[in-house]
Known about the structure:
- Keywords: Cell membrane, Membrane, Molybdenum, Transmembrane, Transmembrane helix, Transport.
- Helices cover 79% and strands 0% of the residues.
- The chain has 270 residues and is mainly α.
- The longest helix has 34 residues, at 52-85.
- The model has no long low-confidence stretch (mean pLDDT 83).
Amino acid sequence: MISASRRRAVRGRRPLILVLPAVVGLLFLLVPLLGLLLRAPWDTVPERLFSAEVGQALRLSLVCATLATLVCLVLGIPLAWLLARGDVPGRGLLRALVTVPLVLPPVVGGVALLLVLGRRGLVGQYLHEWFGVSLPFTTAGVVVAEAFVAMPFLVIAVEGALRAADPRYEEAAATLGASRWYTFRRVTLPSVLPGVVAGAVLCWARALGEFGATITFAGNFPGKTTTMPLAVYLALETDPDAAIVLSLVLLLVSVGVLVALRERWIRGAV
């Protein structure tokens, strides 16, 4: 058998042909973030953070991202269960379709939402005629756009947790006479709760940073649909320092999400 010191020596070998591109790749990812920190107007950051425009965009972003996450939880958990446990034909195709928003350009997603939920859309025309509901260019439209692009993150995380969960507990509950709904609520869902939480956090972070689908489907109206990413885009043209401050806020949120999920990733890698 190979000794521990021998294994450490083998693992410690770092071929230069791999180390160099790895370092370049690391710098490629970190230097732009470092540049953001170095160019930030730190002397005016508190003043800009508490300005009316930033506060308005931040509140709207937090509310819309939270509502979008709730929508994703209500719809995404059953969808993940269907993909993981449901015996349905074409499940592989369904899984591929669910993940399409991950690779679809967000602007294209916004156009698709307009064609379906707009006042003349396939569904939107009936919503407007029958119920007087018009989603485009409203705060509700922001929530819909964010939920559309963020739901795959939740579905993938929950489906992975469901596939990794031990089904014997569910089988034991079924043999004891528990209904499928009771088993799902009291056995399945608690067992995959860490995956649900991780998926919800990723979903919320993705919704908070959504830009393309939001500006296409909901527009850019201050106090109504102007979220933080849209505010960054507007400020970059007129007040670059304000754009940097807003970008710092989104950067801190992203880092917070990564820190919150770090322990779960480490446990999953062990």
